[in-house]
User: What shape does this take?
Amino acid sequence: MSSTGLEFTVVNAAQLRSLRSLSLFLVLPGLLGLIVSATISVRYLDTLPKLPHPEELRMTARNIHGTIVYQTEEEDRQLTLMEDSSVGVFLVGLGLGLVYLWKWGIVDAIGAGEDDLAPEESNS
Assistant: This one.
């Protein structure tokens, strides 16, 4: 293996570790945010009124599992922000994880020597 190939593999290994860490750093909080927002939704389903209450400013409708509950605009804004940002963070982390898996496969293939591939090619 040439020195250039060795340097390429070392740099890729460090980059892969960083990519894996960043992916986990985003996927796990995104998943946690989705769990928390689902918990809040279930709590809203149990505690919020099923009819609008103008005196409490509960006029904003939210459909939770087929049941309409009424919440304040601030509650709606906060829960929507949490749901949307959690999904976004999770999807970015998932995308980086897929890139990591793709690059890991390529680095694995580059690391395989020609001798490793020779028996498979002779069977074709």
The chain is about 75% helix and 10% strand. Residues 23 and 95 are 8 Å apart (CA to CA).
